[in-house]
Request: fold
Amino acid sequence: MKNKLMHLSNETMNIGFVKKVEALSGSSVRRCFQCGKCSAGCPMSTFMEHPPNRVVRLLQLGQGQRILAGRSIWYCASCETCTTRCPNKVDLAAIMDALRKLSWDADGPSKESYVQLANRLFIENIRTYGRQYELRLGAAFNMKSGQFLKDLMLGPKLISKGKLKMFHSKNKNIAEIEGIFKRIEEMRKKGEAL
Amino acid sequence: MSRIGVFVCHCGENISRTVDVEQVAKAAGEIPGVAFSCDYKYMCSDPGQTLLKKAVAEHKLDGVLVAACSPRMHEKTFRKAAEAAGLNPYLCEMANIREHCSWVHEDRDMATAKAKDIVKLMVERVRKGKSLAPITVPVTKRALVIGGGIAGIQAALDIADAGHKVVLVEREPSIGGHMAQLSETFPTLDCSQCIMTPKMVDVANHPNITLFTYSEIEKVDGYIGNFQVTVKHKARSVDESKCTGCGICMTKCPKKKIPNEFDQGHGMRPAIYVPFPQAVPNTPVIDRENCTMFQSGKCGVCAKVCGPGAVDYEQQDTFTVEDVGAIVVATGFKLYTIDRKPEGSPIQGYGEFGYGTIPDIIDGMTFERLASASGPTGGKILRPSDGKEPKQVVFIQCVGSRAREKGISYCSKVCCMYTAKHTMLYHHKVHDGQAYVFFMDARTPGKGYDEFWRRAVEEEEAVYIRGMVSRMYQRGDKIVVMGSDIQVGVQVEIEADLVVLATAVQPQDGADLLAQKLGISYDKYNFYSEAHAKLKPVECATAGIYLAGACQGPKDIPDTVSQASAAAAKVMTLFAKDKLERDPVVAKVNEKYCVGCFACKKVCAYGAIEEKEIRDRQGNLVKKVAYVNPGVCGGCGTCQATCPSKSIELDGYTDEQIMAMIEAL
Reply:
């Protein structure tokens, strides 16, 4: 996908996707003139197959699927260095957020991403227990990602130091937390939240 | 015994850093004939000049040598100071111990020794120097402007408005040039015709402007202030004094299918025609090569329908000689074509783009005509091959320009901006179309220019792709454009309906021949050379000839108009005086020894050498000798070096002076 010949036409450029990114992030992608300052300052740039400037470039060409096919957006640490330094007021951190959101919704190519999996399990945990239950998070992540023995030997160490609880403790106000989730879901339906 | 004063300058630290100026001044003081020597931090400063003036008076100096920078920098300054002190300015010379010594050496001792030598030999030159008086030449206060594009029009109007007579010569049947062909102009998108035609009409109606269209420069004689220019008036076959411009001849002409040059060959015109509706003058011309009357002798329709009887098939080319004092050259540009070039041409076409055989690959000027309301499509963007509206248009920049392989290494300067404009014009006219631009850099220096380009990208939705196109070919009715986006690092393929190439700006055809007639220099691309890239951007090295517009290098309209007004200002400066003062550093012929071989005439770059007849009292021809016209001589000294009988000498650089300088070493 990364180096595949790019056909450009009104049909192959998914402008609708770009419009969504722009609406969600509140930032224009056309403003970018590809100076590369975002990639120059990005602490995660070296890990990305599409560094930040190229993510914007691909959006300019209507090639959102190429971004979602990769993991670059999941490496972004949302440190906002790019946004702070951009000479054209392109809010790249917000664009990354929007892309992650769209990738999540699309349930698509980036499903392979462990980052997305970890994020989803993390949120599910919070919704169920009202707080984090690390042991379950670790176990579920290992099961779902198919890496059953990953970091297994760290478990006893962390348990002995009290960093990992064997049993969860439920939040007293779990109903209120469920209320927060519900409200966000409603806002999303109305398009008011990411 | 002479009394020479030597003044050694520190030039701040520029000289004194590497040259021991005190030692140089001391050594100079010991040369016989030097009555006074000193060193000073800034000789060109006011106190420095006062020092010089005082020394001339106190020590009764009869010659002055300033050891400082290049004479190109400050010779005038010190000669003026010397003149103010009562010396002949030409007895003041400069020894260049900065550019020729301190700047180029590191070893202090050796640099000091060299500076001493330079001073020593220049002292000899001052010693053998002669007082000279400036040469005065009369000025004809009438200007010639060559080329009737926006540059020529602006220059002619400015000079004419200042109250001087102007002759404007244009090769084509109408003035207007390339600007008249444009649809809208960047960065404000105002209609080219709207801002151009008032100026064209002004030219036609101005009492001080004589307009010669369909005319060319045949020959140029003379020198600054006194040129004699022979103008060839090509036979129009229509009497301008009788023609009323009704246009009935054009509607009745049976031969109507001739590609119109003004529309880049895409519209049609009759054999008797005006190039475009707003033409000035609005007098038709017969294209004799395509006219049935001229080719077979049978037709004559235009003559029959012409009420005032203006059509004249017998008209011949005529010549007039115009006396002018200054010339503004504004011959403009043409666009490079990607067609296959003849063998041996340094500039080659583009095989990878099909050598111009694909009809829907057009150049920028053709796009202008397609977008123009007066163009062949009435302002609709329709592609040439089948007249359909293109939905995918690819623009390619730097075609020919910045391509050493194609023989052109320069940037054509205007293409980035006009391509941005084209994407906008296209977006305004074809709402569901998409414009793509392949580019290397967007070069947009200029007021409001970058904002204009960003507008094309951000608001008018042109997709700019950084990277060049490698190949284009026809597939069905589409053109496959194979390029790459170097920012993403992928190959890009677009099936385009129309491709517009921003081809290189080149000087007009025949620019080199005109330069040879005028005696001005031009570069390897045939662009005319200015006297100094920074400080004399409108003057030619040949005195009295000025440059305006794209004939000097690629230029957009604002730059062209600025330069045209600057050239006009230079002409007005020249015309402000009744007599011209020129530097007397000119060659003189010793007629006694001259054998009339005219070797000097062959080498003179300025055309300053004439043949003079020497006759005895009875009027018999004794011999022919060379004569140097002091108004034309540029003082280069080539004739002096060439003369086999040593009978020609340059004032200020005589053999005697040069020999004395060599002997001093």
